[in-house]
Amino acid sequence: MNDDVFSSLATCDRETTQQIASVLHSRRQDPDQSQMLQRFLTAVDVTSGPVLEIGCGSGELLADLCDRAPATTVVGIDHSVDLLRMAGRSSGTAGNNLKLLAADAHRLPFADESFSTVLMYTLLSHTPDIRSVLQEAYRVCRPGGQIAVLDGDYASTDFSLGPHDPLNACVTAWRAHYVVNTHDLRSLPRLLEAAGFQLVQAGAHDYTAAHSAYAYTIIDRGVDTMLDSGTIGKDLARSLKDEARRRAHEEGFLGSITYRFALARRRPSAGTAPRTA
Asked: DSSP character for 81?
């Protein structure tokens, strides 16, 4: 199992948390990432009752969720108090229906059947125990309620123009330090069904990056990981970062990642209509 900075953010220093927040912000500002996220949210009806986002981070989804469901309580949880503070600031105009809470995704502090919708956005790829998180999501989801997941199939990440491309060495180092589950999302439908959900739809989005501040962070973090470990020196580190930017401008391509999404429901209890409030 890989190391993963995201899975240990609750105990990370402020500098590391700020770096991750910057990465999340650059991802939110990426036009292609934003379009993918909007397509995902459009497929999910969040107006039927309370909404829970597990692993809300610095709040990339929260304002959108509150806008889409102004009469519904939206709850965001994360294990990083620092990221939650940033989420509160960035979602300050979202309305009075938002609640933020520091909590562990493996042990949710909510009663059974509390939420009509449970969302996870790039959470499971950073979760040491996917099954226990999905079991908790099932527990707090109401009968007839839904779970929506969008996450990276980070094993698919490819920044190469040919065999043995040095930028893919940067991707390999990034993945080893920032992603704990590299292949698991390929089995997302099966994982949801194993947790008790009934699959409604599943699919994939292909993200292709050229002039992308977010894509640069992948290369830069991989380079910094190799530099910190002594694998490469400062001159090569600088050259690799420069090559990524040259390539984006001259080739019009930097890299690609496949994202997996799924929507599933908890079966209604026999003889019981789904609750709406």
From this structure: H
